[in-house]
Amino acid sequence: MADLLRLLLRVAEKAANVARVCRQEAPLFQLLVQEKTGDDKNKKFVQDFKTLADVVIQEMIRHDVGAQFPEMASYIHGEESNKFENGHGESVTVTVCGTEKETAVLLATVLDGDHTAASLLARAIHQDPATIEANTDGLTVPLSPSELGIWIDPIDATSQYIEGREEVMEEGHLSPSGLHCALVLIGVYLRSTGEPVMGVINQPFNYKDPEGGGWRGKHFWGVSCGSINACSVPRPKDAPGGGLSVVLSSSEKQVVKEALTSLCGPNKLMYASGAGYKILCVIQGLADVYVLSEGSTFKWDSCAPHALLRALGGGVVDLTKCLQSSPGGLDQHTELTYHQPYPGGRGADRWANHGGLVAYRDCSQLRSIIAPLKGKL
């Protein structure tokens, strides 16, 4: 499945290009925002936005993967509905057409006849990205496309993407907020068991080109299947005598903050935006563990980074199940899976990680985190 990995790296970079094009001009960007409502709304936020960039990226990935691997076409899932309402109240189904010109015509109907904006987007969708450097030579995964499904989060941390703050990213430190937190996430799972087996993460706004001033991205990938574990990120070295560090959402429950402060100390609790970005911080070793007590993340948030963590010897588990389990069964029976909806859920809620989650690199760290939380939630 090295071919699939190379394809996902390529389409993720195309997606990053689309995300960057959509942020280039503020007046254009205002046209690309539409508030989510009803069952598609994430209940965690007062306002939760869907952008045309999200929808275009999702449908582009669906189109490109389905074209090369048609047996996967019915199992490519995303966060967004591809229905978009334009300024005239018309509902338009966004798809990627056979040619750049046809796609531009379709997008112009969404953008109220703004052909310049539509052409810019269509060009980014149909343009092949620069060659992605990834050492996948010799990587053999004994899986067939007919065994696999895909979860897409076209732009995770959409609110940070929309706000567009350009925070300075310090080497070796996580970014609490800003464009750095916006990620393209593509996760591959086994249809039979729901295990995440491959993940690609693209960070479109990693750094600014000192010459041209434009944004440049960075990509990460991982494969975990049986005895095969490969990741573009080296396993982070634990800081000597550093103690356990945890990244949280700023809106995390006070009881969780207090329990983890007593375990780690106040200086080892950090806060950041975006579920995908917080798990990436664990992957990179910028934090040891990510804890979330709410059911406010979804399969598309966690599938891709989960695969990278598995490749590094870690994982992502259901916090509620962990609190109910014996210490010996933590990682074996509580890992998140990606193939079945939540019983009785509606809309996006069907695919929520209802029990909260813990993302970790090491089982001993997971056990250390669970102990002080028992009986508190």
Number of strands: 15
Helix content: 25-40%
Protein structure class? alpha+beta
* Percentage beta strand: 15-25%
Strand order across the biggest sheet? 3-6-7-8-9-10
Describe this structure in a few short sentences:
The chain has 377 residues and is an alpha+beta fold. It has 12 helices and 15 strands.
What does this protein structure show overall?
It contains 12 helices and 15 strands. The protein is an alpha+beta fold and 377 residues long. It has a 6-stranded mixed beta sheet, sandwiched between helices. The N and C termini lie far apart (41 Å). α8 (275-284) runs parallel beside α9. The chain is globular. β11, α7 (254-264) and β12 (269-271) form a beta-alpha-beta unit.
Which terms would index this structure?
single chain, alpha+beta, 12 helices, 20% strand
Secondary-structure blueprint of this entry?
Elements (H helix, E strand, L loop, with lengths): L1 H20 L4 H6 L1 E3 L13 E3 H17 L7 E3 L4 E3 L5 E3 L6 H11 L4 H12 L21 E9 L1 H6 L19 E8 L5 E13 L6 E11 L2 E4 L14 E3 L5 H11 L4 E3 L3 H10 L4 E4 L6 H13 L3 E3 L1 H6 L5 H4 L23 E4 L2 H11 L4
Parallel strand pairs: 3-6, 11-12, 11-13
Antiparallel strand pairs: 1-2, 4-5, 6-7, 7-8, 8-9, 9-10, 13-15, 14-15
